[in-house]
User: Fold this.
Amino acid sequence: MDRYQNRSFGREPAGKIQEINNQDNNILDEGAEYLFPETGEATAKVHQPTVPELFTQLPSIRDSLETGTSLLQDQTSQECLPCLAGTSDRHSGPQNINAHGLPRLERDEHISYLHGTLTELPAGYVAYDASRPWIVYWALTGLCLLGEDVSGYRERVIQTFTPMQNPGGGYGGGHGQISHIAPSYAAVLSLAMVGGPDALGSIDRRSLWRWLGKIKQPDGGFTVCQGGQTYEGGIAGAPGTEAHGAYAFCALACLCILGSPKEALPNEGGFQDKPSKHADGYHSCYALAGLSSAQHHHQVRYDDREAEEETLSAAFGWSYGGDGSFRGAHRERRVYEIDDIVAPIHPIYVIPFGAVEEIRSWFLAKKGF
Assistant:
């Protein structure tokens, strides 16, 4: 069973988050700001259209020239329009449609797909060698959203990220690569999700802090790494110098030698960014996270005293209410089945609330770094 939530999502996160969530969900906490406030009782048997009429039919002006792209667009439109118009036949068609005319969440297929992205990947993924922590983070987050226990990946995650952590602080995108702020972000959050003293203790917090200080800029921002890529995206011959076309060519030529990613995984489960594209862990992660945000009410509590002390308490002041089922008077607002509810996710860190509380408590309990 998942340490943070199970399929029914009845278990609440531990610590302060648990205290907040154990309160009656129908009572608004004083001092709490609801980003998605309740708007009053819904009228029974009255369904307000959720999609503007403009988007429930084909455009009135169409180009008579047919191309491969236009034919693919028409095919995609014919698949989407019944769902947008709410006229889908739930008993026929390629998709499993719920009572509201919307596709059901293919939970098992998505779970199988995301587990697959954590196994041996096809050769085309060599182009993502510098994005290994991201591939792990996207898959783990998606699995957490679908109610899966990811603690079974703890040892593999530790063994994968330990060689990527550089003595000077931070994580590289792969073995032997320089530290970069993006994979460092993904690595730390992945370790937080699998949790446990071994995972959290593998983070060299002191060197990470010092490395972040080195890449921090006078204006308060951060460069992504200590290297030759400049702010405009070009490649320079040395850090701090201007971008140069010849160096950019060398860098791009090296990338071309690695080859471009081909169709890597069968399109069974997972989400893609656009119709006709292939599913991937990145869009599966954030599509499910967006679905979670739509299903759960988030609230944030600001502590004025801590704000005056310039601490980062606001990021940890988030909690959620309810279980996504919109019970009682608000049930009519729900356009999905109970089985299609995904787990709540922290709106800032995009990992389970329990993982946020665990890693925060673990480091707070340590003296210094």
Notes: Confidence is low (pLDDT under 50) at residues 4-48, 260-267.
